[in-house]
Amino acid sequence: MIEVRGLTKRYGEVTAVDSLSFGVLPGEVTGFLGPNGAGKSTTMRMILGLDAPTAGTATIGGRAAAAHSVPLKAVGSLLDAGALLPSRSAYHHLLALAAGNGLPRRRVHAVLDEVGLGSVARRPAGTYSLGMKQRLGIAAALLGDPPVLVLDEPLNGLDPEGIVWIRGLMRRMAAEGRAVMVSSHLMGEVELTVDHLVVIGRGRLIADTSMAAFIEANSLREVVLRSPQAPEFAGRLEAEGAAVHRDGDALVVTGLAAPAIGALAAARGVELHELAPRRTSLEEAFMRLTHDSTEYAAEKETATATDKEAA
Ligand SMILES: Nc1ncnc2c1ncn2[C@@H]1O[C@H](COP(=O)(O)OP(=O)(O)OP(=O)(O)O)[C@@H](O)[C@H]1O
After folding, report:
1. pLDDT of 191-223, one tens digit each?
2. Would the CB of 16 count as within 6 Å of ligand 1?
3. Which ipTM did the prediction report?
4. Cβ-defined contacts of 39-43 (< 8 Å, 24+)
5. Which domains does the chain have, with CATH numbers?
6. Which atom of ligand 1 is nearest to the CA of 41?
């Protein structure tokens, strides 16, 4: 697992990471979320031992990343998938990494198969699409078969197929008992994949919660229903304590769950054409949560005000 305690990084006047403490548990995908400039990459670099903290500690399996005799066996990471020698093939790139870390050649074949690059492994990396580079980056992360994975914005710039693939891979890695940490600045990107959320803003911890608890806290229970008897049924629902408002030809009900509404309709012989629970988007909830800590919010608001004045 990853443990971060009082982690702080200052660059001159800028405090990029500010007394952060959280854990990333085995068997879970932990989403590390925050707006641009929140300090996600800086935190991940310190966890990986690529940057020295100004204060605090970050450990992997109880030790600093650099203190592991073969770091690739302790943690695999994807930071910048573009950082490859363009003339070197995926196979030789991985072979060099394996040799440098005392890992057997069979691991190279195993990870190439795992990421689906087997058939193109001899082509120079410079000819790869972004999705293929991302797969190669993941292959390098998996080379040491590590119990911990740290992936910085792995979905950036990927096509839908690549996104589905990385999501599936992260779920599989967690199911195998690994601790998976994945950063993103978009809730929508990770919403379906993560078990746990660590949200930061301006380097500080804003939320550390299970995804289920986040959904529970931010789901506005609304049910949309359509019925030819909507006007009469609305009164019945209100008599049961629900709040009802019209939205076109639909009724939007809060205060009663869909099964209760369905049962009531069945008991009253009301014909239903639609009965659909819906929730507010988690992206909106995330934006509300991080609004005050968005680095460029003030500029954006000023611009909006100016636009309005000009209009
Ligand atoms: N080497 C550096 N020197 C000075 N300031 C830095 C350095 N690296 C990061 N920062 C600053 O630290 C803050 C956090 O940056 P960081 O890249 O960690 O954020 P992030 O959450 O990963 O953002 P993004 O989603 O845009 O990648 C920013 O204000 C950034 O400008």
Report:
1. 889 999 999 999 999 999 999 888 877 766 789
2. yes
3. 0.95
4. 39/9, 39/200, 39/202, 39/203, 40/152, 40/183, 40/185, 40/200, 41/79, 41/152, 41/183, 42/9, 42/16, 42/17, 42/203, 43/4, 43/7, 43/9, 43/17, 43/200
5. 2-210 (3.40.50.300), 220-278 (3.30.70)
6. 22
